[in-house]
Amino acid sequence: MDDDTEAFVLLLLADSSLPTGSFVASAGLESYVAHGFASSAPPLHSATNFIRDSLASYARSALPFVHDAHRVVASLGSRNGTVHDSDIAQAIEHLRTLDDLYESMTLNHVARRASKTQGVALLTLYSKGFSKPSLSQFTTAQDSTQEEKHAAAMLKLVDRYKLAIRREETQGHLPTCWAVLTAALGLSLERSRFLHLFLHARSLLSASVRLNTLGPYAAQQLLLHAVRPLVQAEANNCKALRTGCIDPSPNDFNFDDTVHGPAVTWPLGEILAARHDLQHSRIFNS
Amino acid sequence: MASTAITVGKIDAGVGRIVLRLHGSSAVFSELSSTYPLKLLSPRIEQDGVAVVYNMSYGGGLVGGDRIQLSVDIGSGASLVVLTQASRGSTKVFKTRPGARASTRNASEITEQRMTVSVADGGAIFLLPDPVTCFRAASYNQLQAFHLARGASAVLLDWVTAGRKSLGEEWSFARYYSLNEVVVEGKRVARDVMCLEEQGENAGPLERRTLCERLAPYSCYATVILWGPLVDGVVTDLEAAYRDITVFRRNAPPSLLWSLSPLVESSSSRQGRIVRVAGKETEQVKHWLADALRALEEVIGTDVYRKAFV
């Protein structure tokens, strides 16, 4: 993918009006505020603290899944462009393995719920929003190009994966679905990981604004000056992380769970997120 | 698991094995062995079908480089309660063994405890240790895997404290890594992985955020995993207590906070539970746990239960 195309795809994905369902998720922030954790520091500080702790834990637990799922989808058809049905079936099987592991590692029902809702929304976005419209002016030559064949294969993959989720054969968690979407669009792994963390942080800032704990200008200030170095740092920290549940490629390193595996790093965040539904009144779903 | 003949003079350090079987109405150890620095002790108890093992380490703690590997096999209908008995209520992880010169041991090395447990139908494991206290700069890995048959039960408590408050230690260890995996009939139902360690570098212009700041204002975190028919009573109690909570907006964090989530959820059922607790004081968390798990008294007996939360 050339730079211009990649930049355009980034613009699309970073659009805050993209229907991904993230606007109803606060990833535990609403509960954090309700439990009085934001009261001890000035608003800018407490918002930054929450973003740091939440982002660090999310990066450590979700990026390995983004990495592995992206690799599964990006390697489809990379040999000679042709994607066979058996390749798609194999890829779905890997995604299922990743979803299963993520499900058993996400031990908090509120986070699981939010992850599945947003995951499916991303797949729907791909099949309904990013596939080529069936209008006459979009169909060019009779012979479909390599690129079109690839797009058709990706659409098939996403549709089959969605079907598997509807049949409850797999869960369709956010990190897996995000990787499927970005890999299907041809976004590089590095961009995909960075953007995923950026969107996590940005949705926390939007949630702060909706909760009225931060003003809209302060949120922009943090987005420019705090979120960038934080996302960069976490993306770097988690570079070598893998899930360890699908076969490593031959040149991959020796996998050690305690060093390279996903982990929760903020137990307080887990407790607060799980207590979301206990709030007397709430505006978010997580 | 394949067992190999032990050659004289080549006994691995820190290795232990427990095999428990039900004979008539009593739980009997077919094997109970351990090598330094691991030490296993079993007190005589009265409860039918229940046995207790104390997992002890020499000198009251573990040091950098210590590797403990314990395998546990629990037969059909037998219940094993695993406790620790450490001085002043927690398993200590030292960087170096007290009294030993730092240079004589691999002080920079990680301390590691691994445990593999298999439980047959109707059997149960109750892992109710003291919390782990990692001293300043200590690194600790704990990896525990539980393979349960259908109808087996498990109560797995895993908790960690901020350090020695008297010495001003507050989350000042280098690393605490804990992995608990529960597999039921070959299917993984939970893989709880927690890693507490200092972040390496600064993030751009922002000051480094310490582990202590991240975990404040609490100085003890506990996780309890519950599975199987023998935990029904505990789950009923916890569900009722959790349902009664309503969070109104407050201005300061509570001194103790807990959450409850199912391990496996489908549209039709919820199986197993995970409880997480955070408390400003370790004693508070201990009292909360002793109260929350009280229904286990009917399963393992009051006397045994009391040994767990002394």
From TrEMBL, chain A:
What's one Pfam family the UniProt record gives for this protein?
UreF
Coiled-coil positions: none
Q: Which GO terms describe its molecular function?
A: nickel cation binding
Specify whether Chaperone is a keyword of the entry: yes
Entries under Gene3D superfamilies matching the protein: Urease accessory protein UreF
Query: What are the protein's UniProt keywords?
Result: Chaperone, Nickel insertion
The signal peptide, as residue positions, is: none
* HAMAP family named among the record's database cross-references: UreF
Q: Which family does it belong to?
A: Belongs to the UreF family.
This chain belongs to which protein, by name? Urease accessory protein UreF
List the taxonomic lineage. Answer: Eukaryota, Fungi, Dikarya, Basidiomycota, Agaricomycotina
From TrEMBL, chain B:
Keyword Chaperone assigned:
yes
Keywords, ordered alphabetically: Chaperone
Lineage: superkingdom: Eukaryota
Instruction: Write out the coiled-coil annotation as residue ranges.
Output: none
Q: Which Pfam families match?
A: UreD
Has the keyword Chaperone been applied to this entry?
Answer: yes
Please give the Gene Ontology molecular function terms for this protein.
nickel cation binding
Which InterPro entries does the UniProt record give? UreD
Task: Report the sequence similarity comment from the record.
Answer: Belongs to the UreD family.
What is the name listed in the Swiss-Prot or TrEMBL entry for this protein? UreD-domain-containing protein
Q: Which organism is it from?
A: Gloeophyllum trabeum (strain ATCC 11539 / FP-39264 / Madison 617) (Brown rot fungus)
